[in-house]
TrEMBL record:
It comes from Chelatococcus caeni. InterPro entries: ECF_Sigma-70_Domain, NTF2-like_dom_sf, RNA_pol_sigma70_r2, RNA_pol_sigma70_r4_t2, RNA_pol_sigma_r2, RNA_pol_sigma_r3/r4-like, WH-like_DNA-bd_sf. Residues 28-89 form the RNA polymerase sigma-70 region domain. Residues 120-170 form the RNA polymerase sigma factor 70 region 4 type domain. This is RNA polymerase sigma-70 factor (ECF subfamily). It holds the Pfam family Sigma70_r4_2.
Amino acid sequence: MNQHRRPPASGTAAGDAIADDGAAAFLAVRPRLLAIAHRMLGTMGDAEDVVQDAFLRFHAAGGAIDNPEAWLVTVTSRLAIDRLRAARRERAAYDGPWLPEPWTGSDDGDVFTGDLPYAVLVLMERLGPVERCAFVLRELIDMPYARLAEVLGRSEAACRQIVARARRRLGDGQLPAAPADALARRRRHETLMEEFRLALAAGDAERLIRLLAPDATITTDGGGKVLAARNIVRGAGRIVRLVLGVARKLGRGRVDRPARFAGEAGFVTYEEERPVRIVMAASDGERITAIYFVLNPDKLVRMPADG
């Protein structure tokens, strides 16, 4: 990271000016850092902690950074790798399936021209920390391999191999769409999600079956704090029986509101104006292939109340 440093200025006035400039430089890039960290870590809280730690290190450097954004991306990425190593141990002991917390940060200003679908965030749990970091930086911000090598402390050839291995482990069909296809795919997915929301609200089993791929899956993450299926349920018929059975038990005191997370369509379930569920999904453009119910209250605390 030495190439991003510059000699410090001297004098109190100069130091104050550098501090002000440094804070402004950090604030300008903070939304981008937070989004990168979230895609690497899968939770808003961990992402915020990592970015705050990066800021403290940036502040301690006293303005001796020639390229603040490059320096901050490097430090944030390396801190995220360290946090991921600890998180893997924690998630291994998690009660039931673990799902990423959907992005609830600001989408103002188009932080990225493209993004990683929620289903890809789920699948990225297959990757090791370095693989995940390399994949996010390459796919999300199109980081050049020479720059990626600097961030990871590996050779450029090694970084190419790491990214290629990550792509194989995720499966080509799960990779982000090309920009020309992404908008059309996102619109088809939004239509499917809205139809699913309405069919679920109406209790329409036949319509739900038509919307689901025969081998679709549903994953529910309650974190041991609320009622949730402890295993992934597979098959359209079984999914429909599960979701309609739960809806009948819970009664009519809930309402589903369409929502977007990093631009991706989903919906939020409210009970007495309190968010109790985020629903995301994966689709192939024709049918829904996977459903994700985020029920753990810890992953809902950043959602605003209904109304």
